[in-house]
Design a protein that fits this description.
CATH topology of one domain: D-Maltodextrin-Binding Protein, domain 2
Number of helices: 13
Number of strands: 16
CATH architecture of one domain: 3-Layer(aba) Sandwich
Shape: globular
CATH class of one domain: Alpha Beta
Order of helices and strands: EEHHHEEHEHHHEHEEHEEEEHEHEHEEH
Largest sheet: 7 strands, mixed
Distance between the termini: 53 Å
Length: 455
């Protein structure tokens, strides 16, 4: 971070020792005695003829320059710090796994994609991510202490006609686990066998409930977006006594430019090639995370190439938008019409004066868009008979709330994660907003419009 002083000319590293100096104008007095300073050198301009001393140099920085770092240090040392670190590592690994599988799926649509009983899709990535995350959590906390609710079960892979699919999953998992040393984890002595992979997947059979601690995993949220080369997410949350306390969202295709979300994958890639090398491009991806009471939500870039993961890995704080006028807001809704009503949300948007086109994206990327300030409203009103699953919302709820937003059902009630696999007792639908004022306006509009709807 360059710290400028008008009398200085050359650039030299600022010694960390200077951050412990004392004096009347000593800025680093705000740091606690045990505060960890990132060893990355801080640069400033220096001219030997100048009489400006080191204290003045430090004082030229503003409090804002250090505020995010201070807040992250406080979060890192708080409750659930180990759980958060392990969860972020697991999701980072899962993102890399998914990127490789998605490239393969796009190159050749083969047996890597299967249809489930409800006609939704499942891929090699779904089972492979589930096995990988289960293995990482079990290695970190002990398999006997890890309880996981996850979307996929092991029954399909156990069938005799699924041997080719199972073999692909085992190979994908082991390829991913060869990279665990990059994440500070102990390398496997030998690749996992078929039975071990099935055991890791089958371990994700918790019924959830109101008591104790369990993890909630959606290995590939937005599988249709995944197989189309579009948006998808890996979502991992920790629930304790029925309440989400930690959430991690991996968004491998989430572009760094808000406007790119409105284009399909192919257009993203073209735009990325046309962008300057210095600009944020398509292939970066990100992981967002937060813990309850952690002082904020955070985003870090997706790990690429052969780099090693260093916690917290260049994380920066993210915040929701400050827009509270519906006319200026952007709202998100699901791409598919199968389990949500676009007509009702469109009518509702019109009634509150929303002028912007809706942002239709697959998966919990909608939660990520609100948390990062790219959109202000997410509304989902399920069609009759559809039940919302806890893994589709738990991680996103924590991140939006810690980023400053509000998530409730349409009656203004907190979402209930203590009744098993589904969000039981949901009042009409789900509404997530960037702030309380906007949220109140949307709730009022829902109440005014509901009786005239056909839901």
């Amino acid at each position: 971070m360059p710290i400028s002083c008008s009398n200085f000319a050359a650039q030299i590293p600022l010694p960390l020792a200077l951050l412990r100096t004392t004096g009347k104008n000593n800025y680093p007095a705000i740091f606690p005695s045990n505060f960890y300073i990132n060893p990355r050198p801080i640069l400033f301009n220096y001219n030997p003829s100048s009489r400006c001393d080191c204290k003045q140099i430090i004082c030229s920085a503003t409090a804002q320059d250090y505020s995010d770092t201070l807040e992250f240090e406080s979060m890192e040392l708080g409750k659930y710090s180990k759980e958060l670190e392990v969860a972020v590592k697991a999701v980072q690994m899962a993102c890399l796994l998914c990127q490789r599988v998605q490239e393969s799926v796009l190159a050749k649509s083969d047996e890597q994609v299967q249809a489930k009983a409800d006609d939704s899709l499942v891929t090699v990535a779904d089972w492979s991510v589930q096995a990988t995350v289960s293995w990482v959590l079990s290695e970190a906390f002990g398999s006997e202490k890890v309880s996981i609710v996850a979307e996929e079960d092991v029954q399909v892979l156990s069938k005799t006609d699924s041997l080719g699919l199972l073999d692909a999953v085992v190979k994908t998992v082991n390829r991913c686990l060869t990279e665990v040393p990059r994440f500070g984890l102990t390398a496997l002595a030998a690749p996992l066998g078929t039975s071990e992979v099935l055991e890791a997947i089958g371990r994700c059979n918790s019924p959830g409930g109101p008591n104790g601690r369990f993890w909630v995993l959606d290995p590939v949220d937005g599988t249709l977006g995944f197989v189309r080369g579009d948006q998808y997410a890996i979502a991992l949350a920790l629930i304790e006594d029925g309440e989400p306390v930690l959430g991690v969202l991996g968004c491998p295709n989430y572009p760094m430019k808000k406007e790119w979300l409105n284009y399909h994958n192919g257009y993203h890639r073209i735009l990325s090639r046309l962008s300057s090398a210095a600009s944020a491009s398509w292939d970066k991806g990100c992981v967002m995370y937060a813990r309850k009471g952690g002082g904020g939500a955070w985003m870090q870039p997706l790990l690429h190439k052969e780099k090693k993961f260093v916690w917290p890995n260049s994380a920066r704080k993210i915040k929701v938008s400050t827009i509270d006028n519906p006319a200026l807001a952007t709202f998100c809704e699901p791409v598919e019409k199968a389990n949500s009503s676009h007509s009702f949300t469109a009518g509702l948007a019109h009634s509150v004066g929303l002028r912007n086109q809706p942002l239709r994206v697959y998966s919990m990327v909608k939660y990520a868009a609100i948390a990062r300030g790219d959109a202000e409203i997410f509304m989902k009103f399920a069609r009759a008979g559809y039940k919302e699953k806890i893994w589709d919302h738990a991680a996103g709820v924590v991140i939006i709330q810690e980023a400053g937003g509000v998530v409730t059902d349409a009656g203004g009630n907190p979402l209930c994660f203590s009744k098993g696999l589904y969000l039981e007792g949901l009042d009409r639908g789900i509404i997530a907003c960037s702030g309380a004022i906007l949220h109140e306006k949307i709730i009022a509009a829902v109440d005014a419009s509901w009786n005239s709807s056909s839901l």
